[in-house]
Amino acid sequence: MLNPPPAPDPVDLLNRFRASYRNYHTLVASTDEPSPDIAVETPASHPFGEGQLPEGIRRLVETYRVDHPDEKIELLKYMRLVNGAPELVVEDDLDLPPTEELVTLSQTVTLNTSECVHVVTDLFVARRL
Amino acid sequence: MTSVEYEFEGETRHVEVWEGSPDRPLVLLLHGTKGTSDDMVDPHNGPDNDYDHLSPLEPEVAIGQRAYPGIGVYSCCTLDDKLPHVRSWRDVLVSAKFPTAVYDQVDKTGPLERPVRELVEVVRALDDKYDMQLVLLAHSRGGLLVRSFLKRFPREAGSVRTVITLHSPHTGSSLATLATTVRDAIEDLRDVFGDLITQALGWLLEIADSDAYREMAIGSSFLTDLADGEGPLPDVEYFTFGGVSVRLTRIRQWVYTLDSALPKWRWPPYDHARIQAEVPVASPLADSLPNVIEELTEGRGDLLTADSRTRLSFATHQTNPINHAEALWDPTLQAQVLRILGVEIGGGERPDVPSFWG
User: Fold this and answer.
1) A17–B258: do the CB atoms touch at under 8 Å?
2) Which of A81, A91, A110, A118 to mutate to test the interface with B (most CBs of B within 10 A)?
3) Are the beta carbons of B263 and A108 separated by less than 8 Å?
4) Cross-chain Cβ contact A83/B67 below 8 Å
5) How far is CA B353 from CA A122, B135, B202, B222, in A?
6) Where residue B321 falls among pLDDT bands split at 50, 70, 90?
7) Considering the entire predicted model, what is its pTM?
């Protein structure tokens, strides 16, 4: 291969995440008629912790901790999307952590037959301490 | 441009001549196996292997927002684009004011017997018309044609002063001997990539399977007879060039960027984008083929000839990192040849070159 693909740039990827981020808790609070299809909760009303992480993400975090044994990961936000549309958003008015602390975690599972397609994405935002 | 007639086996044929400075020798260009005069005049149209394999790959292209992650290959596959412009030997020589002649040889894929006798008639016609000193500049099998002509018809070659062969398999090519092995390797690639491989390497198989290349197999009776008792003709200088690059073209595909697999905090969550990349393992062609023969080994061959076999004991040799087809337009090689002829491209004539043609 003459032109090997460039190595991924983790900071650039986080910056792209940040560039498209919007706080839906704040947005819903400022809207008169929130969409009935989306459940927007707060971490207080819908608590979640590492125990609720999907199995695949949990294993990835365990692997990460082997090289980062002193780090703690604090989950801040959670979103579940089904076929690209949000089903549940859990966040308060807290903004994203700074880039050096920001962690994104996600898992997408799919099922596709001749009659249906299901694409379910679980997306978490966390802070590493 | 003048069309000079010659008779060969009862047929009137033509050699095309571009006029030049009267104090320059006439350069007769000789194409190789399966070639035509286009090789020397318009190589972009034939042999059409001028892939731009050094150009940068396409940058990232946004596709749009999607509900699902974008992972892996977006679309496959294409070869490199062709170079926007290549400068032929005719173009270079004419612009340096060398009278330049070219013709289509008979039996382009057959034995050399008839092309050698035809060359006698071509040289005779040029001598009669111009009475100038001759440079024979030959690509690939054209170099063997020249050697056979000089050995069998030295009296008819009295006007020849310089012989320059480009990537000519003077001591043979194992491509003919191992054509079946090479075909198998290419067939394996074709099973995966389909017509793309035929497009890129089909010509290689056609040449390897030709009678012309069988005649050039290592140890063939033709080559043995040619080398037997062969030596340089008096007053003739010999130069040989070889190539050590088997790089022809990359195989490109579009793949999703890594970012296409990372969801964003919005919906739809995925920003799809694609970026060009080479197909692993298979790209670039023909580097990816097994190094079953020296001709197909990077650093030793040029796809059709091995550099070690493009040499003559009585010639000055130079090796370049180019493939067999690139010898038809490579600017560095063209500058090297012009230097032999006493001209520096863009820099006027070299003062230390004797007035060889005066």
Assistant:
1) no
2) A81
3) yes
4) yes
5) 76, 16, 43, 37
6) very high
7) 0.84
